[in-house]
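=== RUN LOG ===
request id: a7f3
mode: sequence -> structure
chains: 1
length: 310
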Amino acid sequence: MPDVKQKHIPVMLNEVLQALAPQDGGLYVDATFGNGGYSEAILQAANCKLIALDRDPNVKDRAAEMKAKYGEQFEFRAGEFGDFAELVPEKIDGAVFDIGVSSMQIDQAQRGFSFAKEAPLDMRMSCQGTSAADLVNSLPEKELADLIYNYGEEKKSRAIARRIVEARTKSKIQTTTELAEIIYSVIHKKPGAIDPATRTFQALRIAVNDELGQLKSGLEGALEALKPSGKLVVVSFHSLEDRIVKNFFLENAGKKQSVSRYAPLPTDIIKPKIASYSKAIAPSQNEVDNNPRARSAKLRAASKISPERN
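=== RESULT ===
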């Protein structure tokens, strides 16, 4: 059984709490429970109730720990945050999302999220379904190259895909280090530079877990669940995620613009649901120094519109 009780530092915790502003008597959702850092901080900030969501079965011990500590104030619901609408039928005062792989999942070497640790090439957050090894060993070369380029923004995607296909004709690619070495044969490691395997591993992880699709449907479900003036807070870690969040906030605030001022306005204009939203906030340098995993984080927050604004 993986050790999930090791404490991790929640990214941008102070900024999350400031944006969410938990109130006594409120109902909040931590859509990405992980090791419970945000959940515990919210429960300590106000005399409120919190619903935690996570699809990873390995967090259940930590959730049981939280339940024992906070009783009726805490409830864990197993599932994907993309199913927010089904998992949380209640009206809520706020929700927070911490998108992407958790520190806990990276630190569990056997999960296959890290190219720095030899493990089966897995990457499944839910521990079921199609794995990264399945994709690497079965996708046609063009589809594999497109996946690496679109989800990893890797410029050498075609060369990497070609080398992967060459390698798998000799033997199945089964471990994280096997895949990393194939990538290194295309892009050589340089001291001080980002590891060449980073973008390809990111792309596979996003594809395996349908992270971008989950994010879109999760945001929609959370916004619908919010009470008037409720808060939606999202911490993301790369441009693909941040772009989805930014555009979602813009569209639901009624800010989506026509391509040309001379073009007719679209007929499917979204009725505004968001009253206000923040620009992307980055972590402080002090936090990055103390928690390197925060370095690429961006926080965006929005407040749901009140009835009188409709």
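=== NOTES ===
The chain is about 40% helix and 15% strand.
Residues 188 and 196 are 7 Å apart (CA to CA).
=== END ===
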